[in-house]
What we know:
With 747 residues, the chain is of the alpha/beta class. Helix content is 26%, strand content 18%. The strands form 7 sheets. Strands 12-17-16-15-13-14 form a 6-stranded mixed beta sheet, sandwiched between helices. A 5-stranded parallel beta sheet has the order 5-4-3-2-11. The chain has a 5-stranded mixed beta sheet with strand order 19-27-26-21-22, with no helix packed on it. The N and C termini lie close together (9 Å). The structure holds alpha-D-glucopyranose.
Amino acid sequence: MSNSHSSNSYTSNLYSPDIINQAKQLLSKMTLDEKLGQLSQISSAGAHIPHDLADAIRQGRVSSVINEVDLATNNELQRLAVEETRLGIPLLIGRDVIHGFKTIFPIPLGQAATWSPEIVEKGSRIAGEESATVGVNWTFAPMIDIARDPRWGRIAESLGEDPYLCSVLCAAMVKGFQTNDLSSPGSIASCAKHFAGYGASESGRDYNTTNIPENELRNVYLPPFHQAAKAGVASFMASFSDLNGVPATGNQWLLKQVLRDEWNYQGLVVSDWESIKELQVHGLSASEKDSAYLAATAGVDMEMASSCYIDNMAALIAENQIEETEVDQMVLNILQMKFALGLFENAFTEPSALPELLNAKNLEAAKEAAQKSCVLLQNKSRHDDSPVLPINRGATNRIAVIGPMAHDGYEQLGTWVFDGDEKHSVTCLDGLIALAGKSVEIEFEPVFSTSRDRNIQNFEKALELTNNVDVAILYLGEESILSGEAHCRSTIDLPGAQVELIEHLSQSNTPIVLVVLAGRPLTLQPILDKVDSILYAWHPGTMGGVAIAELLFGDASPSGKLPVSFPRVVGQIPIYYAQKNSGRPPTEESFVFIDDVPVRAAQTSLGMAATHLDTHFSPLYPFGYGLSYAEFEYSHVNISQHEIKLGCAFVVTVTVENKSDVDAEEIVQLYVRDLVGSVTRPVKELKGFKRLLVKANSSVDVAFEMHTDDLAFYDIRNQLNVETGDFLLGVGANSSLELNVPFKLVN
Ligand code: GLC
């Protein structure tokens, strides 16, 4: 097997020669103290400027302020920096603008379920513009940690389990935040985080150890970050996590060899919140001075929140532990971003130059994102298998709305919503009432006070209501606080007594629709046969209520697809589609359910394969899964050549037919398997996708323009290569499809 060496060096520069020269000119004028002052990001005091912060700025000891969102305060902070310091270096104002500022979009995991770079880019554009109106010029997004463990609370902020989908959407987010001109009004610097491997935190406990072999790191966890660098992301954030024994924040291999030497990245690297100080807690350093030394020599340019740099760098230089030239490069990385943002031309914010917050266009975009993020997981009556959704308004007189997530404009916003406000939310109940029309009577019974409530006193009232309506819609799930940073769960069932409620209501013959609002996949297996339809809405943001109601009434067809596999039980985790085959892959034949195991069965009689005895080896729902009100059929999957020379392009085509009388969008997915490699290869990998409208009773021919370089991977020598040999491909509706089109790469 031979190979062609794909280039993995990154050539284009992040900043123009003019920006670089301006930064170098300024650097040449700076004293050592002024240089060291550029390495620190200070936490804001919240809409006011304490004397010590003002003095620190005047002394040139502050490069950036995090979490200030009061416009007048930010303009005063900039005035202090620009007018009351020797060199007038403006400030970076950083904020976690993760999925919206005032207009809140679905959580990133929900946005990933749209599989739409266009929707994701628009959402980030709006978030950037809205946050810029208060003087923010730097967001700590996109979060592009590959997440394959739904116990981990931060899966909510991620773009899911797949490197390709994550890479495409992350580039769209970078473009959305930064536009093509970082200095243009409303553009803000973005930040690829958390570099790297944070999503592999053991047992899904946040901040926990990660052990990731280099080959897996390079083939799974690093590609989205490499894509972000190629997309021109202005900064990277080093992760809290211990990566193979060396925390990312002090990891020279990661921050120097990979990011700088291999990828030639020239942007700013910021620590995570006090992650430099935490190197001592990890046990990598014996003091804050050691921590400063390790982080600086590893390649962290700016320190967030703690003061190891500002307290120790002068001594480290005086003791010749760190060269001033190393500090010069750190400062240059920071100044370049400030110049590129146009802050030296104008550091002040005039909000009238920007669109109004929460304007109709922004709200419409948030509604579209929410609508296209929802995933229809099930839609058949538990009595006769007929579809229960969409609800026919004309044939419906009474609807029951049940559950604690139905009318909670705060919880539907999701995690990382520092600046959103529930008063702007359209709740699920509001949205349903607004779209149902006057002829439909809607009655609301929350049953619980929270999703964790175990009080069942309202069960009978809820059953009575359910028995007396045409359809019962249950809005259940998790509050936003149950996912996000540091909010991990060891089980991922519906919390509280929600399962018991569903079981109780399933006694009724009334059709039951379950809408789940959650920040992660939940293990729904116990309730599948207790409800008729299941719509997964994640935490859908400000306009979630309208978006969900539009889908329930059929004003649009659900079109979202899962960006992450749903496990049957928590014991299956990690479970993801792009797994390796192992030497004994699971098969239906090899699976013997535990209840069917004969007493005293012979040791080798149960089939010797990579399965559990008590749970089927497949996920509850596979990556890429999502139903529609339409019925799509795939045919004529073809490849332009069955023997393809390395370095050549090829085309994969498929026909998608909508056999229903409902117009709908479908997300067509292309998967490939490299049958033999110098390292084992996943049983399939997503290599292309297209979201497209297929009108009722019509067909669309879809073409994927491919190149053999798209099949590159890090080989046994951890070099990016494309290897000759046999491949299979398939195109279909989700990752459970069979790959049945063979092709071969040849020299
Ligand atoms: C947090 C998070 C990081 C965030 C930063 C600033 O601890 O890990 O994602 O951007 O601190 O809030």
